[in-house]
Amino acid sequence: MRHAPLMNTTKLLTVMTLAGSLAQSQAQPILSTTNQTLSPSPASDLERTIHDLKNPAPWINWGGDLRVRDEYFNNALSLGVPAGAGLGFGTVHSQDYLRVRGRIGLTLFPTNDLTFNVRLAAEPRDFLEHSTFDTYYNQPGLQWRYGIFDTLNVRWKNALGLPATLTVGRQDILLGDGFLVGDGTPEDGSFTSFLDSTRLTYNLEDKKTTLDFIGIIQDARPDGWLPTLGPSSSLGAVPGPEPLTLTDQNEKGAILWVNNKSLPYANLDGYFIYKHDRLLNSPVQTFGDNADLYTVGGRMTGTFQDHWKYSAEGAYQFGRKQDPDLNMGGANPWLPASAQTTGFRDVGAYATQEKLTYQFKDTWNDQLSLSYELLSGDNPNTKNDEMFDVLWGRWPQWSEMYNIYSYVQETRVGQTANLQRVGPTWTMDPTSKLQFSSSYFALFALQDSPTRDLNAVFFGNRTGAGEPFTGTGDFRGHYLQAVLKYKFNQHVSGHLWSEFLFPGDFYLHRQAMSFFRAEFMFTL
What we know:
Blueprint: H1 4-27, H2 42-54, E1 60-74, E2 94-108, E3 114-122, E4 125-127, E5 141-143, E6 147-157, E7 164-171, E8 181-183, E9 195-204, E10 209-218, E11 249-263, E12 266-281, E13 286-287, E14 290-304, E15 308-322, E16 345-359, E17 367-375, E18 392-393, E19 419-428, E20 434-444, H3 454-459, E21 475-487, E22 492-503, E23 513-523
Parallel strand pairs: 8-18
Antiparallel strand pairs: 1-2, 1-23, 2-3, 2-4, 3-6, 4-5, 6-7, 7-9, 9-10, 10-11, 11-12, 12-13, 12-14, 14-15, 15-16, 16-17, 17-19, 19-20, 20-21, 21-22, 22-23
């Protein structure tokens, strides 16, 4: 296996971190006890030049960023299945690839209340080992992909003279902690996260209440609404086993989100979310599901007794879903014949997540948190569907490895379900520029059998060494995470990220899963 690029990037980031710290310490002005006038530093002159460059006129602003990542993981996608055991991911169990995402955006201010926002993004990837991804499966080398407008909207403040803001078009939306609404494009792996939507935010200032009304029409294909720069997903236009997609199915939705801040100790949210899915057909295979899902829930956050901070959220979901991969006929060894159906199933599912944090308020800003999360999974002994669907929450909320890659064979990319997660997280800021965090979670499954099983879907039955699940255990394993972040200045930051899972009896194979990432972010 080739690890040299990852190691080189890691060493480079470490050296730059140390060098940046030294440079910052050497650059601090030395002040005497008498008053004196300091001449502007070169840094402030540079910042003024950058500001003037980005704002050539009062009605225009532009900017951009460049994100460079080297990511490596092993067994996270294959779940430890040996190469040649009958499951495709076993042959590409380890991955090492470079991701270079560039974005440039422009904002126009025709009036004080009206803005027009546009941003163009692209992310080529260089696979140092044979790829597991989409049209580039089992190939090494450079994948150019395509360029896409990931922002294109008009925002109107004080719309019609009301205390309201109306945003129409392609936009990023994060509601609450992003538990159910945070990423509309999970299939492109943090390249983009937009939703094609209309959002009206109404502010009832005297009641300390904000109302959000959101309508969503999301096409699964990158060029479904707007043309891309270069070939993307026009079905059949891209050679390979499947087209590039943003998400698994065409999606529509409606959201009502209410936030109230009238209580001094509690910030309250209540919401109703409707999501309508229609599966996507390609010349090769069918993607996604047909569904009409209704989710009601609430969230409460706040602080008390100076040092304590908390958050708690719960949701119930009902409706109907038809998922070709959830209903595998006789192929699924854990699904009784009486529970088989190829049509719609009634959905009854639930989810909750809580976090309690103690803030030491010391010089290192130490914080100790305890997290708990529960997401229901499908019960194979019923004709209904008990799997909670996280809707537009399919992003790395607590893990870049596990709830993204390791769920591919069990549900879909980032579609975390059938899970109990509990454990502590420690964060600290040794300096104003350096942050370190570490986490441990014990992971459990509510149902012994996985909601889906790609091996059973594609190969028809359990194949011994090629099967990743036992079907009899409910302990997913011990999860560890450590993250080191450093901010060199307001334009350059970086991090080192590591994750490990030591599998339990939910999985047939017990090889450790690992994930490593080194990242630089340059912002203008």
